[in-house]
Amino acid sequence: MSADNRRLATLGRGTNHDFVARRYAELRGLAPEPLGCDTLAACAEAVLAGDAAYAVICSVHPDTPHLLTAYHKRLFLADTFISPSKPLAIVTREQIHRPHSIGVFTATLGLADLSAWREIVVEKSGTIFDVETQLRRGAYDSALVYRDFIDRVSGYRLELEIDSPDDAWLVLGTKRAYRGALVASRNALD
């Protein structure tokens, strides 16, 4: 990795990962444009190849545990932080008056009461953008997606806005931050 590489790698472009990584880059004075990767493993490989200095990943992403164990000898936690996510919403195709099916990304499953839908399709891999894509393809009547979907795509109505959860985020790099003493923010609980 070049000494001037101050770029982050994260999952996708326009995703929640991209949104939060940009905020983190601004806070830390890093390059403002993250490298958008298709998978968390690709983020890890970008750091190892020197294409990015760090990878920023959400702790609740379903691929995070596997990534942490698969790369535990080569990538290390460099930092952690708490950040709200992009606002979310449940949207429904306008022509559907009584939606029966809803698509949700596994990491967002508990954020809203879905009992009004007879069929809940849980997408266990990918991103919320993949849920949006499946909704546009007609795989389900409704979906829990980014709130800005309703502004980007016509033909859908807003059913419910969902407050952004505060997520724990992990920053992975090639240097280990832990050196025998607990690493924590001293003023986090003040």
Describe it for me?
This protein is α/β, with parallel strands linked by helices and 190 residues long. It folds into two domains: 8-85 and 166-173, Periplasmic binding protein-like II (D-Maltodextrin-Binding Protein, domain 2, 3-Layer(aba) Sandwich), CATH 3.40.190.10; 88-162, D-Maltodextrin-Binding Protein, domain 2 (3-Layer(aba) Sandwich), CATH 3.40.190. Helices cover 23% and strands 30% of the residues. The chain is built from five helices and ten strands. The strands form two sheets. The chain has a five-stranded mixed sheet. The termini are far apart.
Distance between the termini: 37 Å
CA-based shape:
elongated
CATH classification, class level of the largest domain:
Alpha Beta
Assembly state of the chains shown: single chain
Give the fraction of residues assigned to helices: 10-25%
CATH domain fold name of the largest domain: D-Maltodextrin-Binding Protein, domain 2
Report Rg: 18 Å
Itemize the secondary structure elements and their pairings.
Layout: E1 8-11, H1 16-28, E2 35-37, H2 40-49, E3 54-58, H3 64-70, E4 76-84, E5 88-93, E6 101-105, E7 119-123, H4 128-136, E8 142-146, H5 149-152, E9 156-162, E10 166-173
Parallel strand pairs: 1-2, 1-3, 6-7, 6-8
Antiparallel strand pairs: 3-10, 4-10, 5-8, 5-9
Quick tags:
single chain; 190 residues; alpha/beta; D-Maltodextrin-Binding Protein, domain 2; 5-stranded mixed beta sheet; 10 strands; 23% helix; elongated
